[in-house]
Amino acid sequence: MAKKPAYLIKLFQSVTEPLAGNQDVLNQADTFKHDHGNNMVEVFEVVTQAMKEKRGASAADQLAHASQLLRQRESGSARLYAGGLSQAERVFEGKKVTSDNVLQLVETLVSGGQAATAQQPTLPAGSAASLLGGILEAGQGSAPPAIDISDLLSAGMSFLNAKQGGQGDVDALMGALITGTQVGKAPHRAQSGAVVANALLQAIGGLSARK
Fold it and tell me: Which is more confident, 46 or 106?
């Protein structure tokens, strides 16, 4: 079966709307500067624009360009996602992003660049982050991951805390999986990371369903 391309413009464009819809909530969750929602919307607007500017270029070139543009921004979130995009550039050097490997892109992005390769993941062991890596690898057809009890406990506690805070099932699950990654170290970034991951996975599902 031919691999279906996961168009990076459409993929990253799909994140902006849900972030904008949660912009005020994310600003309120940021107890320091109260501008995290604004920054996250800007991050993915910049990424989408970078993809358009490099339309037709290789995936690695598109990701590198987006990373470079984000590094020119002042927010910590921009620098964090710039790191994820820079790592993704190395992962996809000489490769196309397809429906078969696009989950690896999501993993690298929401991990803040922690996941170096599919063969040598650097997601922290014993955390919900390693669950995310395992689930994504399983989605790519790999053998079922070995899950440590601490993984389950960490993810379970994060999920329950999010549910008690009023989040829906999907957002709570995504937030739990992101806990322990670079993106998930700050509560407001874990919250926005859940929105990003959920939007990307929904977009991937839509791309994969197309014939």
Answer: 46
If one counts the domains in the chain, the total is 1
In a domain, 59, yes or no: yes
Residue 178 pLDDT grade (very low, low, confident, very high; cuts 50, 70, 90): low
CATH code at position 27:
1.25.40
Residue 174 placed within a domain:
yes
| 3 belongs to a structural domain | no
Distances (CA, A) of 170 to 66, 91, 177, 195: 28, 28, 11, 9
| 144 Cα distance to chain centroid | 21
Looking at residues 17-39, what average pLDDT do you find? 95
Could you tell me which residue, 85 or 6, shows the higher pLDDT?
85
Name every residue whose Cβ is closer than 8 Å to that of residue 119 and which is 6 or more positions away in sequence: none
